[in-house]
Amino acid sequence: GGEPAARAGKLLGQAAVANARLAYRHYLGIVGSDRFRRLEARGARRQRLLWASTSTKNPGYSDVKYVEELVLPETVTTLPRPTLRAFLDHGRAEPVPPAAFEEAVRVLAALAELGVDLGQVMAELEAEGVAAFRRSFEALIGAVAERQPLAGPVS
Predict the structure, then answer these.
(1) How confident is the model over 88-107, as pLDDT tens digits?
(2) Can you tell me whether residue 51 is helix, strand or coil?
(3) Which residues pair with 69 in a beta bridge?
């Protein structure tokens, strides 16, 4: 309880967006660097950032929170159908204001001050996300194999 709990409460629902925005800022640093510009002049292409799993899991948040808060150039957002329907119904595609990047730094610093180990949190979320994608991929491959058996022995 007390003051740390009040500070933590004000940060609820902000870490993921703050982290994504700082990843985007890092991306801009890479593609804006002299090194990358030289590579681009020789034919290198930019790889866009992908925002995945953008549905809102917490019913207390807007159902389009993670879509609206990550409207950034040169990014791709995957949306589950319910989130897409919600966004088409009442979402706003307004670019993230420049001040949001400094706010993201403050959010992550405040979490660290409260003892949140963001490195550990991100590592756990990454592992869970990779495992979920792996399960989905394996299910897809299994479904394809059931419908399209091999024509003959593999040599």
Answers:
(1) 999 999 999 999 999 999 99
(2) strand
(3) none
